[in-house]
Amino acid sequence: MSSDLVLTGKSALVTGGAKRIGRAIALVLANAGANITITYRSSHAEAEQTVRDLRSLGREAQAIECDVRSEPSVRRAIGAAAQFHGRLDILVNNAAIFETAALDTLSLAQWDAVFETNTRRPFLVAREALTHLKVARGRIVNIGSLGGLRAWAGHAHYCASKAALHMLTQAMAKAFAPEVSVNCVAPGWIELDEENGERAGRFAAKAPMRRNGTAEEVAQAVLFFAAGPGFVTGQILAVDGGLGL
């Protein structure tokens, strides 16, 4: 992780920040100096551990239970984050659903559940945070997917929801400028502890870099957008080892 405290004095909200990629993002931003609020839905124990780890870095940190599909819940979480830190500089829209399902048997309930979390949620959270972000001339980083750039037959609803998020990122970049920059990190296959095995090996073999990515590498890409040039906006950055080429 970066040792340069480029985000000192800044505050960040990471949705779904209790575990996996969200946790890695929260830790990398904290290591760069930011104070952190994470949201979680059911991962209470993991959220509390992540908060302890963030505080061990010398940062102010809190975890807020939040259903990112619910307008009142999101509004409360944004208000609590802004009040806790006194400002809000960075929003990372990370919370998402990934599901494998055959398109010809996909139910409307499955379709709607994925879009509700993966596409409507980032819109809702960004809309509620916008007033605070404009004051801070802040940053929004959405977590998209290589699946939003390349079609995966067994994940059609997921791919469509992430492609919509990529377009939403670009629409937000236009709508929220010049005060707020909006970008998107689109991970390919990311190696997580519970996802080792034959399938991961197949993806690694297909990637020009001959390996899968790590949560840390996704988090470092988020840090670039959070701390890098504010003139960069509306961009979709694939972190995929060349898998999408």
Structural write-up:
The protein has about 240 residues and is α/β, with parallel strands linked by helices. Helix 3 (about 70-85) runs parallel beside helix 4 and helix 4 runs parallel beside helix 5. The longest helix has 29 residues, at about 110-135. The chain contains seven helices and seven strands. A seven-stranded parallel sheet has the order 3-2-1-4-5-6-7, with helices on both faces.
Tags for this entry?
alpha/beta, 245 residues, single chain, globular, 7 helices
Q: Can I get a quick summary?
A:
The chain is an alpha/beta fold. The protein contains seven helices and seven strands, in the order E-H-E-H-E-H-E-H-E-H-E-H-H-E.
Biggest β-sheet: count, sense, barrel? 7 strands, parallel
| Structural class estimated from helices and strands | alpha/beta
* Strand order in the largest sheet: 3-2-1-4-5-6-7
The stretches of 5 or more residues where confidence is low (pLDDT under 50) are none
Helix fraction by DSSP (H/I, runs of at least 4): 40-55%
> Quaternary status of these chains?
single chain
Radius of gyration: 17 Å
Continuous helix count? 7
* Large-scale geometry: globular
The string of secondary-structure elements, in order, is EHEHEHEHEHEHHE
